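Objective 1b. Sequence-to-structure analysis of ABC transporter ATP-binding protein.
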Amino acid sequence: MMSGNNNKPYTSGGQSMGSTRGDDTPASAVAVHGLVKRYGDMLALDYFDLDVHQGEIFGLLGPNGSGKSTAINCILALLTYDEGEIRVFGKPVTPTSYDVKRRIGIVPQNVAVFNELTVTENIDYFCSLYITDRKRRTELVDQAIDFVGLGEFRKFRPGKLSGGLKRRLNIACGIAHQPDLIFFDEPTVAVDPQSRNAILEGIQRLNREGATIVYTSHYMEEVEQIADRILIMDHGRHLALGTAEELKGMIGMGERISIATLDLDDKVLQRVRSLPFVIEAVWDGKELDVRCRRGERNLVDLLDVLNAGGINVGHLSSRPPTLNDVFLELTGTALRDSTEHAETRE
């Protein structure tokens, strides 16, 4: 479990959530306008826009190949781009913008540590890229180790750590210099649920203590759990932006009803599909899954049709729309399906 020492909390120099300019407009941490990135004939970023407010957790949601990592690498000046403008804390970013880059931390999707170094030595090395004073760096390394809960492993080399502990080490290396802006690129890939929860709790704590977070993922539940605002992207384009509830309110779907039944026939299924509130109805031989428009009597009317057809009904459930439903309505493809079948462009 990521945990902090009360005597040595992580403290970022960033402004707290809700920081504004004089006109009450939220201060911008990252502003991207009309970003275009091409790889030959392939358009990886298609006039992409992004505005991250200082002090927020900003979720960047999209399947593999949607352009998330490409956008981040352009923001960090690790990739050149063809058109557009990028500013971080109001300043343009170039490969030599060291004053801005010192305020940024990056936790990459792939664990990027040195197998020959111990936990402490790894964190110290990455911290030394920003902090030259040895005494101050020692304090920061200790704080980072404490923050991610690796105190008993500080002399271990990465090869001796579990996958979840390696992810925590990866995070410590990215945050040891206490940046104001931190990019987390798929930090929970292939980790166990306990480590996943610890990572998400740690990210939320970093935010509470002053850091602006940009969190990229194709795991909808994670983004919905921690993000203040969410941008959905695909094919290098900005599709929709808002809080999780605002995004769900953008679509026509009101609920998804699932009913366990083994004896549904085609005639009754067609009657279900003809109901005016039904967007889609699918039966897999065991469960009827119905996507519905907003309405107060959807479940009652659906059960009336099934009862009239003599269909035996077992367990049933109704749930509000998810971010995957938002993505499905915006793109025609489920986010998880896109993730499984997309060609990687990042």
